[in-house]
Amino acid sequence: MNNDLSRTRSNLLRLYAAGIGAVGAEQVVTRALVTHPSLETRRALDGAASIRMLAVGKAAPGMAAAAARIVGTRLRDGLVIAPHGVPTAPLPPGVRSLWASHPLPDAASEAAGRTALEFVAQTPSHELLLFLLSGGASALMAVPAAGISLTDKVAVSAALMRTEAPIAELNAVRKHLSELKGGGLLRRLPTGARMLSLILSDVIDNDLAVIGSGPAVADPTTFADAVTILKRRKVWGRAPEAVRARLERGMAGELPETLKEGDPRLASVTNVIVGDVAAALQAIAAVAEQLGYAVTIGPRLRGEAEKLGGELGRRLLAVDHPPACLIAGGEPVVTVSGNGKGGRAQHCALAIAVELAGAQRQVMALVAGSDGIDGPTDAAGAIVTPASVARAREAGIDPHAALRRCDSYNVFAALGDLLVIGPTGTNVGDLFIGLVNR
User: Fold this and answer.
1) Predicted pLDDT at 163
2) 221, 176 Cβ separation under 8 angstroms
């Protein structure tokens, strides 16, 4: 690799690290509770003589460690639920840690969910429950509704994921098959107790009803919505009989809906977004400008990853005043075809590479998950240049065929261009960074 490419690659990795650092679990909690607390947050904390803490999600260990350090001796009890493999953090004695599965729940997820419901229900009326929520919580604490087994719920979730249904649709269905989601957790909070939720968002537009399937907020979706989604995605006919029966009973008004706006229990909770993809992009932009790049924040990463990758590649080629840095964040989707290996970030990166192929420009781009994990792989994402396609062909790989069979991982593994860093302990969605040099 020549010096220019090496320097550009180094800059890409530095910018990615800046984005991750800005939304690190401990950083966002410290900012929310100490350096830049909102008036609502200060009131909730100042009025709490004793505090219980529940942390759930990919960022749970780090968020819990920071919160425990800040609230100090007021912390009476704590429960942390995180995915297997997420970095641990030092927690005070008495704070329990549970590990469960993501993206699909397992028996440990159900056990963790039931423990979480019990933990919330045991909150004394005079205490504050500090709820630290981050991406991944939907799978990590999964309590099926009465009459539904975890196997039933996993089957429906897996089928929807294979259709690459957006997270909002997936959560609308899961909420109506759950005791915990769609405000179910808040329903367990005893009268008189209060909840302060600090939320690290992995959802575009920070929709509280979508993050973690909204365990402590009102749910705008209905049983009818869940049925419509399953039918539109052609999953209804393959769904377990118990699932169809429950949703049909719900549509008929025989079962209570999820928590809705106007419910008096909502007055007991304060929800605060403490970090999101916008914060990561702002940090990336600041460092890019220090490095001498003119920065453009592009449209959100949404829709089909292959189409999005083509659009991002064309944007990079259209830059007419380098050095320039294009950045964006969000969560594309992949409609799986073939039996290849990869994730949405790698698939998007390969589509960018195809669009850039052969261009006589100094361009390099990175697409990676902020959590350090892209799909069912050990990579966060991948790095591409206009030479990526030619290098792949030299290695005997057809990049277009790899796109068709969703095999981006093996392309970038052969090129040495996977970004493998392990779990970052945070999660705000996926990041795109493109650099165009003179």
Assistant:
1) 83
2) yes
DSSP secondary structure string, 335-361? Answer: ---SS----HHHHHHHHHHHHHTT-SS
Full DSSP string of 394-436? HTT--HHHHHHTT-HHHHHHHHT-EE-----S----EEEEEEE
What whole-number distance in Å separates Cα of residue 329 and Cα of residue 428? Answer: 9
Q: Are 81 and 112 in contact (CB under 8 A)?
A: yes
Strands (E), 136-289: 194-200, 269-275
| Spatial CB neighbours of 199, under 8 Å, sequence gap ≥ 6 | 133, 134, 206, 208, 211, 212, 271, 272, 273, 274
Q: What is the pTM of this model?
A: 0.93
Residue range 3-16+278-437, CATH number: 3.40.1480.10
The CATH H-level superfamily of 24-143+180-220+258-275 is: Glycerate kinase, MOFRL-like N-terminal domain (3.40.50.10180)
Q: Is the pLDDT of residue 172 over 90?
A: yes
Which residues have a Cβ under 8 Å from the Cβ of 403 and sit 6 or more positions away? 306, 347, 350, 351, 354
- Neighbour tally for 253: CB within 10 Å: 9
Alpha-carbon separation of residue 48 from 54, 117, 127, 129 (angstroms): 16, 21, 6, 9
DSSP-derived 3-state class of residue 382: strand
- Domain positions in the chain are 3-16+278-437, 24-143+180-220+258-275, 144-177+222-255
**Contact, 126 vs 190, CB < 8 A?**
no
Q: Tell me whether residue 50 is exposed, middle or buried, using C-beta atoms within 10 angstroms of its C-beta: 0 to 12, 13 to 18, 19 or more.
A: middle
Summarize pLDDT for 298-346 with one digit per residue, the tens.
889 999 999 999 999 999 999 999 999 999 999 898 888 888 999 999 9
Ramachandran angles phi, psi of 363, nearest 5°: -125, 140
Q: Return the number of other C-beta atoms located less than 10 Å from residue 360's C-beta.
A: 6
- Nearest-angstrom CA–CA distance, 385 and 118: 52
Secondary structure (3-state) at 15: helix
Length reported for the chain = 438
Amino acid at 284: I
Cis-peptide, bond into residue 190, ω within 30° of zero: no
285: three-class secondary structure by DSSP: helix
Contact predicate 353/340, CB 8 Å: no
By the 8 A CB rule, do 62 and 68 touch? Answer: no
